[in-house]
Design a protein that fits this description.
FAD/NAD(P)-binding domain; 17 helices; Guanine Nucleotide Dissociation Inhibitor, domain 1; binds flavin-adenine dinucleotide; single chain; Phytoene desaturase, neurosporene or lycopene producing / 4,4'-diapolycopene oxidase; Amino_oxidase
Length: 494
């Protein structure tokens, strides 16, 4: 039986491991941290439960596909429920908007902002659906190693139909009269850690994922997902070694033959699947001769500044997911990607899973996961100095938006800075979605799932194709596992 080492127990690594073990390979995962899940992590304290990474679950069918491949039922592992109110949006002038998976309700909300935009929304969503369907046949179904195939006329015509020289922001402006709706749809660029003013209009497919396919929640918390994948992997005999950082991928004659762990142990394998951040893997785990300068130029995605707040108060004005918009969206993204500074008046995301799941907080309390997009790490921001005052400004802003007495009601608190994302998960400069999609050709520039230079080396996770976010990293695991299963074959890569 051929054996495989997976570096990292993030969702991409777990998904690849499950598929490969089900296909008859002998799989071992080596994970640096003491728990599985990577950036999908959790904190439990004083009766509160917090997901510290992902909080919004989309593309449920991708998770189902993994369980189906393993001849298991998703329902036997996870209780995944649809959210009726997808997200509640707040603006500083007091207006509020509930995005709902019931499109008539969403249209009623749109009519309150700008009646002409109801029809525009229908057209926008139809376009988003077309884009999603094309991406589903091309980018989301094929590894970038298949690029030569994707450039054949059969696919190329479709790819050109969804490619755009326009930015997402320009696209949204061309559809919606209401500046608020433009801002709302611009926000979808942040789902892969990018700026709407730089990411191509192709990403206008993302709203279809949410409005068309639904927003979901895993009862008990999103951390149930990696736990379910861990269970699935173990059922197929995957060995998971925790607290086991890898120092080096061993390469002989341009072929990987295994890894060396940080305590010096050499573990041989027929294949290596790196779920460690792909850019960091090239930087630190692979001989320098294989390092491609282009990787250094790839802009990391945004990072995140997170507050976990256990609050002894109920906030009836909150939904499960909430957005408190900034008044100047362009300034926010200039700060993030041009100045590499925390935005002064940022948009704030608050997940209160306690609104729909009583297991997440003590009675009459809320577990607030507060996330503000933050720049990837650089010398321009020292979070050790700035975290406290930034935290204060966020609490103050949330109070001004109606979360009364928030400061006085906090009984548990933890701050997570971009530096922690960088150090704990060894991500490229603390990026939370791998590389950004700022740039027209960004989708073609991700690390392919199979190395073109080093035989038997594969890459999965947010910095690889097809991108960051839970469902996409599961797809990267699928693509790598399929290539290994079918015998890697020829293809494009670097
Ligand atoms: C704050 C935040 C909010 C988010 N919100 C959402 C959301 O709402 N919805 C959504 O879908 N996605 C969201 N995401 C993104 C999503 O969580 C990630 O894209 C996804 O989980 C990344 O999976 P991955 O496979 O890339 O692995 P990672 O999570 O990056 O895990 C990689 C693993 O490799 C390990 N590792 C690294 N180097 C080594 C080494 N040398 N040796 C051994 N192990 C190593 C790390 O410790 C880690 O466990 C969010 C992320 C964050 C941080």
């Amino acid at each position: 039986m051929k054996n495989i080492i997976v570096i990292g127990a993030g969702l991409g690594g777990l998904a690849a491991a499950c598929r490969l073990a089900k296909s008859g390979f002998d799989v071992t995962i080596l994970e640096k941290n003491e728990t599985v899940g990577g950036k999908v992590n959790s904190v439990e304290a004083d009766g509160y439960k917090f997901d510290t990474g992902a909080s919004l679950l989309t593309m449920r069918h991708v998770f189902e596909d993994l369980f189906n491949f393993c001849e298991r039922r998703l329902e036997d592992y996870l209780n995944i429920e649809p959210l009726q109110t997808i997200c509640r949006y707040f603006w500083s002038d007091g207006s509020r908007f509930d995005a709902s998976s019931d499109l008539r309700k969403t249209e009623n909300e749109i009519a309150k902002l700008e009646p002409r935009d109801v029809e525009n929304f229908r057209k926008y969503l139809a376009d988003a659906r077309r884009k999603y369907e094309i991406a589903g046949k091309t980018f989301l179904a094929h590894s970038l190693n298949d690029l030569p195939k994707l450039l054949r006329p059969k696919y190329l015509k479709d790819l050109l139909r969804i490619s755009s020289m326009k930015t997402l922001a320009a696209h949204n402006e061309s559809y919606f009269q209401s500046a608020k709706l433009q801002q709302l749809f611009n926000r979808f660029a942040t789902y892969n850690g990018s700026s709407p003013y730089q990411t191509p209009a192709t990403f206008a497919l993302v709203p279809f994922v949410e409005f068309g396919l639904g927003a979901w929640y895993a009862r008990g918390g999103i951390y149930e997902i990696p736990q379910a994948l861990e269970r699935l992997a173990k059922e197929f005999g995957v060995e998971i070694k925790l607290n086991c950082p890898v120092r080096k991928i061993i390469i002989e004659n341009k072929k990987t033959i295994g890894v060396q762990t940080e305590d010096g142990e050499i573990l041989k394998s027929d294949y290596v699947v790196a779920n460690s951040d792909a850019v960091e893997t090239y930087r630190n785990l692979i001989d320098k001769e294989f390092f491609n300068e282009r990787l250094d130029k790839r802009q990391p995605s945004s990072s995140g500044f997170v507050l976990l707040l256990g609050v002894k108060k109920r906030y009836e004005n909150l939904a499960h997911h909430n957005i408190f918009f900034s008044d100047d969206y362009p300034a926010e993204f200039d700060a993030l990607f041009r100045d590499l500074r925390p935005a002064r008046n940022p948009t704030i995301y608050v997940c209160a899973s306690s609104r729909t799941d009583a297991t997440q907080a003590p009675e009459n309390c809320e577990n607030l996961f507060v996330l503000v997009n933050a720049p990837y790490t650089s010398a321009k921001t020292d979070w050790k100095i700035e975290a406290k005052s930034y935290r204060d400004s966020i609490i103050e802003k949330l109070e001004s938006f109606g979360l009364e007495n928030l400061e006085a009601s906090i009984e548990f608190e933890q701050i997570i800075t971009p530096e922690e994302f960088e150090n704990k998960y060894r991500t490229n400069r603390g990026s939370i979605y791998g590389v950004s999609s700022n740039g027209i050709f960004s989708a073609f520039l991700r690390v392919p799932n199979r190395s073109g230079q080093i035989e038997n080396l594969f890459f999965v996770g947010g910095a690889t194709h097809p991108g960051g976010g839970m469902p996409l990293v599961l797809l990267s695991g699928k693509m790598a596992a399929e290539m290994i299963r079918k015998g890697a074959g020829e293809g494009f890569g670097f």
